[in-house]
Amino acid sequence: MVSTIGAPGQRMGVLLMRTAAVFACGALLSQTIPAVAAPVNPDDKSIQRAEQEVDSGTATVSALAGELSRSQDEINRLELEIGGLRESVNKALVDLHDAQAAAEQARQSVIAARQQLDGTQDEIDVAQEKLNEISRAAYRNVAKNGAVTAAAGGDSAEDALDRQTYLRTTAQKQRSAIDELDELRTRQANEESALRQAQNLAEEREAAAEQAKLDAERQIRETGEQLQVKSTERDRLAAERDQAQAQLDRSRGQVSQLENQRQEYQEHQAAEAARRTAEAQAAVAAKERGEAEAAATRAAAEAVAAQERADSEEHTPTAPETAEAAEAAAPTPQEAEPESAPTAAVAAAEDAAEQARREAEQAVARETQTEQVRDAAVTAATAAAAALIAQNTAEHTTLDNPYPSGEDAAEVPIAAVQNPVENAVIPEVAPTEDAPTEAVPEAPPEEVVAEDDSLSAGPELVTLESVTEDAQETVDGSREELIELAISRATSQVGVSYAWGGGAANGPTQGIRDGGVADSHGDFNKVGFDCSGLVVYAFSGVGIALPHYTGYQYNHGTKVDPGQMQRGDLIFYGPNGEQHVAIYLGDGMMVEAPQSGSTVQISEVRWSGMSPSVVRLI
């Protein structure tokens, strides 16, 4: 069908409709723009007054900021002092547990020394009885031989020889028994001396442990009071700064609001001027539109006439032309033939690809299974190392003595000493000179093997170094792997509450009650970490046992210049690392448990107040 429009009248109507639509659109566009209510226009005095308030607020904040800037060192010092106060309590607790362990070792040494002394006394009793029996046997034999000789009425040379042989043999036995008795009495004297020393040392260590407990209690009490004062001072400075900044923000907001209102008013004035201009232009356009409509009508009539003339010259295609066109459009036999089936080579390639895909999936499954087995082994080794360390570590936050009292109490395991400043074993006792004995007939002495006169009674105190040696046998990996394992343990606790004194080899623990700042944040009711406790937990997983005090942790590992710090190094604060500790992550970041009321978090490294060295444990 060439056209759906038939008669010339119809064409004329369509053209007129189109023309009318065009002019209708123009009419819509030229309608008058409605006016909008004018916004508030603040006067210049209001803006000037607000700007003066901003200037005044800026001056106040600038003055305070300058004061805070000048006292920033003081604020940093307060922060570090607060950390140092908290860690001083950790130190007191570590020293208390070490004193309690040393006292328990001395108590057990007294028990062992008394047992040795009792055993020696038993041996003396046996040796004395043996000597008495030899003496009685000799006396009976001499009396018997004398009576026999007298009854025989003579004294032969053979009897004399027998008596000499018997006396010599008896004298040798007696000398041996006396030497053994002398040796036992000498050992007894040494053991009695060792027992007295062990008892004295046990009393001294028990007194030291009691004093350490009093010191820890006093430290907690005094630290709580000082923390309250210093925290209040720090919070006051921060509150003043924040209040001034808030006032400045409000003033700036008021000026901004007034300026926005002024800008809105000016924009409204410009829009009103544009509206009036548009209305004038619309009036001119309406006049021009009327003239254009008449011209368009005439043009439409001429177009219809031209179209009618063109239609009369057109003709309908003949039948042969239509057949040729249909024949040309028909597809050829070759084009109508379907495509041939896939070749054998294509099928083989697809099979090979499928086989390769299955083999790849199997390889991935095997690798995944291997990775899972490896991860499970690492997890088990980490847990075993941490459990071994926890087993040999005292409960940090308790003040109570975990060991029994009195010599009748049974032996119990002793926790590892966290800061072995001196040899804690019972000292050796100098051997006593042999005690004189009664004169006896001389005889060739038998060789006597001398025994060790040193005191071997009592257990040996275990240190964190020896615990580390045992724990590291359970873990394996390269240096990089161990570092990543320690860091992953620390970062896995991000978001866990800060708890002063909290944290152990196996995870977070309950904090300390101090009657002050920590109590106000509920540390004693929280299960979490403080800074040194987080480090204890992180590195226990790689078999490194550390004391729960930053100052003692600072003395472990290798000290390195802070400019050369690497991922996994410990960053300390304070002259001797006694105020704070964090774990370096790299790229200027560290993970830490900062203070009461916060959580374990990742922070930017703070260089102010940093200790002279960082510590590399791995």
Automatic annotation (TrEMBL):
Swiss-Prot/TrEMBL GO biological process terms: proteolysis
Enzyme class: hydrolase
Disordered, as annotated region: 206-371, 434-455
Coiled coil regions, renumbered to chain: 61-137
SUPFAM superfamilies: Cysteine proteinases
Keywords associated with the record: Coiled coil, Hydrolase, Protease, Signal, Thiol protease
Acidic residues bias: start-end ranges: 444-454
EC number in record: 3.4.-.-
Keyword Signal attached: yes
All copies of domain NlpC/P60, residue ranges: 480-618
GO molecular function, one term: cysteine-type peptidase activity
Transmembrane segments: none
Bias-annotated ranges (Low complexity): 293-307, 317-350
Feature: compositional bias, Polar residues: 244-260
Classification via NCBIfam families: NlpC_P60_DIP1281
PANTHER family recorded: NLP_P60 DOMAIN-CONTAINING PROTEIN-RELATED, PEPTIDOGLYCAN DL-ENDOPEPTIDASE CWLO
Listed name of the protein: Peptidoglycan endopeptidase RipA
